[in-house]
Amino acid sequence: MEKRETGRGSERTRFGLLVGTPSDLTDGLETLAALQFLPTVSEILDRYDPHEPSERTYVIANGTLWADTAGTTLADRPNIVPLLVSVGLPRGEDPSNPLVISNEAREYFAANGPIGCRDSTTVDVLAEAGVPAYLSGCLTMTFPEYNGRRSGSFVFVDVAEEVRDSVCRSLGVESMDIRTMTAQMPGLPGGLNRRFVRLRQMAEARRILRLCERSATVVTTHS
Q1: Which alpha helices (DSSP H) does 49-193 contain, by range?
Q2: How far apart are the C-alpha atoms of 205 and 194, rounded to whole Å?
Q3: Are residues 168 and 201 in the same domain?
Q4: CA neighbor of 131 nearest in space, from 97, 87, 90, 95
Q5: Are residues 166 and 214 in the same domain?
Q6: Does residue 195 belong to any structural domain of this protein?
Q7: Cβ(76)–Cβ(39) under 8 Å?
Q8: Taking the CA atoms of the chain, what radius of gyration do you get in angstroms?
Q9: I want to staple 82 with a disulfide (CB 3.0 to 4.6 A). Which of 61, 124, 161, 186 is the partner?
Q10: How far apart are CA 164 and CA 19, in angstroms?
């Protein structure tokens, strides 16, 4: 690794913060989780923006932030040096093979391995593709444990109404504080400052994190 900054004029290691879909709070949580481990942030890098940093920059590429929704990796941005940990794979249409890996992704992983995976299924898929992989778990599991007072509320995130009602009946919690929310943020009008949009996503992700960690139970469809 390059020498970190030790004084004026010395070389320094640049760290970038990788961000995903502005309206997706799960991407926001993945970014918050990675931010914990960065000593400094030299640049914010968008998974959907082909912009490449002018200097060699290290990023934590966790979750599905290593590629855009079309499966295009960061390989064409050689100044981005990825630490691929807590990686997830996109889901395919075939129920018998729910996780898919493209040839481009396989080559990218092989060149930047070994790959830390957030679940054992991803480890198996990568291993079968000839990519060295290990189980690292999800980076969001590294948020500090909350030991304060809990509210006693039940939070359901992107859970169907009938499933929520069934869970509440089975647990006998119909009369308790029940909150339903989605990980998708409302859209914003075009032309807004990108920094404002990102700060909004981070602020909302922090709010959801604080709400969930203080609740008695959280039920979610997100892995």
Answers
A1: 103-112, 120-128, 161-171
A2: 17
A3: yes
A4: 87
A5: yes
A6: yes
A7: no
A8: 19
A9: 61
A10: 31
Rounded CA separation 90/69 (Å): 8
Q: Evaluate whether residue 5 is within a structural domain.
A: no
Helical (H) or strand (E) element with 31: helix 25-35
d(CA 201, CA 195): 10
173 and 135 in one domain?
no
- The CA-atom distances, in angstroms, between 133 and each of 94, 110, 125, 219 are 23, 10, 9, 29
Q: What is the 3-state secondary structure (H, E, C) of 128-139?
A: HCCCCEEECCCH
Helix (H) or strand (E) holding 57: strand 57-60
- Can you say whether the dihedral through the CA atoms of 137, 142, 147, 148 is positive or negative? negative
What is the spatial distance between Cα 164 and Cα 158, in angstroms, rounded to a whole number? 10
Task: Kindly state whether residues 125 and 177 are assigned to the same domain.
Answer: no
Q: What is the pLDDT of residue 183?
A: 60
Instruction: Supply 62's token pair.
Output: 């966790």
- On whether both 44 and 69 belong to a single domain, the answer is yes
Minimal CA–CA distance to 62: which of 129, 137, 121?
137
Is residue 55 a contact partner of residue 79, using CB atoms and an 8 Å limit?
A: yes
Q: Report pLDDT digits (tens) over 143-187.
A: 998 888 888 788 888 888 888 888 888 877 765 677 776 666 555
- Segment 122-147 shows an average pLDDT of 92
Rounded to 10 deg, the angle between the 25-35 and 194-213 helix axes is: 90
In a domain, 50, yes or no: yes
The residue segments making up the domain with residue 179 are: 145-220
- Rounded Cα–Cα distance for residues 61 and 52 (Å): 15
